[in-house]
Amino acid sequence: MSTRAQIRFATREEGVTFSEHPDNIHAQFYVHHDGYPEFLGVEIAKSLLDSTSIDNLEIEYLDTKHGDLEYVYYIWQTPSKTTWISIFKTNTFNNKEEECIFVGEPQKLLEKYD
Question: Is pTM beyond 0.85 here?
């Protein structure tokens, strides 16, 4: 079974918390399977920490919407500041409300899910 996810890159903005969706994203990728935090979340964290590549990412237009996502990841970056990751558990197929299940730096994500 597929676990679909999107990875979105955003700039840290004043007044926007890491546990909410930002209005402005700069890049977006789609992952058709293995999108759960114990796999994709760990892959993202490792990539940010040691430049490990992530396979099977599809580049998307910024306004692409999916009706069957289970996770949405935000990579929050600003020059000269630490990078943070937010993970939202969602089920757009069943119109369930999204829940922010993780906010933290890459190392904290590894400690929780690896």
Answer: yes
